[in-house]
Design goal:
Elements: E1 6-13, H1 17-25, E2 32-35, H2 44-47, E3 52-53, H3 62-72, H4 79-87, H5 89-99, E4 115-116, E5 126-127, H6 133-147, E6 151-154, E7 158-164, H7 165-168, E8 174-180, E9 186-196, H8 217-224, E10 229-230, E11 235-242, H9 254-258, E12 262-264, H10 284-298, E13 303-306, H11 312-318, H12 320-328, E14 338-347, E15 350-352, E16 364-366, E17 371-372, H13 384-403, H14 426-444, H15 451-474, H16 479-500, E18 524-528, E19 533-537
Parallel strand pairs: 1-2, 1-9, 2-6, 9-16, 15-17
Antiparallel strand pairs: 3-5, 4-5, 7-8, 8-9, 10-15, 10-18, 11-14, 12-13, 13-14, 18-19
Helix pairs in contact: 1-6, 1-13, 3-4, 8-16, 14-15, 14-16, 15-16
Bound molecules: flavin-adenine dinucleotide (FAD) and oxaloacetate ion.
Oxaloacetate ion (OAA) is lined by residues 49-50, 118, 253-255, 382-383, 385.
């Protein structure tokens, strides 16, 4: 028997910093549904270490934060977005403090926050909760959301696809989503407005700092629903993940370098000054490429990150989580350098949104890592993304409130097509495809690219896509197959964007075009659904006339 349809004013897909901020900012009169693919708190937010950037220090200014962000973004940031996010930074941080986030303080007054440094920032401006900032933010917001009377939480509930006017008729717009529950059933959930807050897509790569959930579901769903995506070629590789065969995804925060950590070759020689005068605190694209270059040049598996010259108490006070985790793998960072390697970390591109988080589809919003908001351009500066989640989560909620009256009541939705058959033997093939995709993306669309490598990736992606379409059409869906389908879509978008950008800029480096294009204004790479056409040109993000 068909269970009754869930129906909300606002359905938020994702429960990281972006999703929970949006939920908490909406007024309690609205019925809000929040979906989480796993437990509510699981996601990149929970694992964020370094902190959240905001202008708080007396020697700092909004102009300086804006300039640093634009410099790191290598000509592709949208200045209006950067200005908006930076100017709302102090307010966003105050909101988090009011929610109860226990940021690290100095002195006795309890109100003076310790600020650390990370790459690209010319000042100390990163608030943090020791080295587990994301956990402090996520668990604080989780408590708030669980206590809210108007918010209904669905854990282990995976959105499969958005439901639009194409299926229900009426004015163009979003009407809800099909959702796979823990019982294996797919049900429609209706809403007047839907917010995508599904995080990034770094699981497209073999080695990543991200949790398993980061399979780009929101980007793939928005693309299938007809939204434009942009800048997918700019995958950020974090320079320093612990190198250990059982821990290829454990991040060593950039704040370790911010507090004096040095990068060394395996024989103990420093090398970063040969690549950039800012040394260890150059923007991430430069540091990751330098490490990759030295590893290939010397044929070594890792480089070293050394902070053991600092007092042991300083290290354990600032980096208790990292210190403890490394001990579990046999490394004592108070006494010895750590072996580190780069890994896929952040998706700078995504679903195009304007300053209010609106996508191309009426009623559909997006916030956080799933988006291309114009903040990061060709390379995100450290600790700007948690800030983006809070600023855009709040902006989206405010815009929804302003516009909800214009959006239709949630309609009765068509049920999911259940005519597919179960065939558990296919599961093994899906798993193989998973491995294949993540490996060819790592090998061919990684830190250093070439035309030939991208062509090889394109060939493999095409084959994989047709196989996945076949499974998807015939077999009953499960989480693995759905994620694989989304990853294949995202891989396709990354490859198409990388092939379209015939220059090196920010995080996209290709040996065949090693310099930035000299002539003209650099454009974002915008992909348009249906035509799957890569075009270049500057995007004008809309500004709400009410603002
Ligand atoms: C190890 C690590 C350290 C980092 N450190 C920092 C830092 O110090 N400072 C900083 O600014 N940034 C940092 N980042 C980046 C930052 O943490 C993320 O960009 C940010 O937290 C993303 O938040 P989000 O809300 O967009 O997504 P996430 O926090 O990733 O949440 C995604 C949510 O979407 C849900 N979801 C996904 N797909 C579906 C689906 N199909 N159906 C239903 N739900 C779905 C998931 O269950 C989850 O709830 C770090 C990232 C990592 C991985
Ligand atoms: O702690 C880190 O290095 C991660 C970080 O700041 C970020 O990704 O913004």
């Amino acid at each position: 028997m068909q269970s009754p349809q869930s129906s909300y004013d606002v359905l938020i897909i994702g429960s990281g910093a972006a999703g929970l901020t949006t939920a908490l900012r909406l007024p309690t009169e609205l019925r809000v549904g929040v979906l989480a693919k796993a437990d509510l708190a699981e996601g990149s937010t929970l694992w964020a270490q370094g902190g959240i950037a905001a202008v708080l220090a007396e020697d700092d200014s909004a102009e300086q934060h804006i300039e640093d962000t634009l410099t790191a973004g290598a000509g592709l940031c949208n200045p209006a977005t950067v200005q908006r996010v930076v100017e709302h930074g102090p307010e966003a941080v105050r909101w988090l403090i009011d929610q109860g986030v226990p940021f690290t303080t100095v002195g006795d007054d309890g109100n003076t926050y310790h600020l650390t440094r990370e790459g690209g920032h010319s000042r100390r401006r990163i608030l943090h909760a020791a080295d587990a900032t994301g956990r402090a933010i996520e668990t604080t917001l989780e408590d708030r959301v669980r206590a809210a009377p108007n918010i209904e939480i669905h854990e282990h509930a995976m959105a499969v696809d958005l439901i639009t006017h194409h299926r229900c008729g009426g004015e163009p717009g979003v009407r809800g989503a099909y959702v796979l529950g823990a019982d294996g059933e797919v049900r429609p959930m209706a809403a007047r407005s839907v917010v995508l807050a599904t995080g990034g897509a770094s699981k497209t790569y073999l080695y990543t700092t991200n949790p398993d959930l980061s399979s780009g579901d929101g980007i793939a769903m928005a693309w299938r629903a007809g939204c434009r995506v942009a800048n997918m070629e700019f995958n950020q590789f974090h320079p320093t993940c612990l190198f250990h065969r059982e821990a290829r995804n454990f991040l060593i925060s950039e704040a370790v370098r911010g507090e004096g950590g040095r990068l060394l070759l395996p024989d103990g020689t420093p090398f970063m000054h040969r690549f950039d005068e800012r040394g260890e605190l150059a923007p991430r694209d430069i540091v990751a490429r330098a490490i990759d270059h030295e590893m290939k040049r010397l044929g070594v598996d890792y480089v070293l990150l050394d902070i053991s010259h600092k007092p042991a108490e300083f290290i354990t006070e600032h980096f208790p989580t990292i210190h403890q985790r490394c001990l579990e793998f046999g490394f004592d960072m108070t006494r010895e350098p750590l072996p580190v390697v780069p890994a896929a970390h952040y998706t700078c591109g995504g679903v195009m949104v304007d300053l209010a988080g609106r996508t191309d589809l009426p009623g559909l919003y997006a916030a956080g890592e799933v988006t291309c908001s114009g903040l990061h351009g060709a390379n995100r500066m450290a600790s700007n993304s948690l800030l983006e989640c809070i600023v855009f989560g709040r902006a989206a909620a405010d815009d929804i409130v302003r516009r909800l009256g214009q959006l239709p009541e949630p309609p009765a939705l068509p049920p999911w097509d259940e005519s597919r058959v179960t065939d558990s033997d296919e599961e093994i093939v899906v798993t193989h495809n998973w491995d294949e995709l993540r490996r060819f993306m790592w090998d061919y669309v990684g830190i250093v690219r070439t035309d030939k490598r991208l062509q090889r990736a394109r060939h493999r992606a095409d084959l994989l896509r047709s196989e996945i379409q076949e499974y998807y059409g015939h077999f009953r869906v499960n989480g693995n197959l759905l994620e694989l389908r989304n990853l294949a879509t995202v891989a396709d978008l990354i490859i198409a964007s990388a092939m379209a950008r015939r220059e090196s800029r920010g995080l996209h480096f290709t040996r065949d075009h090693p310099e930035p294009r000299a002539e003209g204004t650099p454009g974002e790479t915008i992909l348009i659904p249906d035509r799957a056409l890569a075009v270049e040109g500057r995007v004008t993000l809309g500004v709400d006339p009410d603002d």
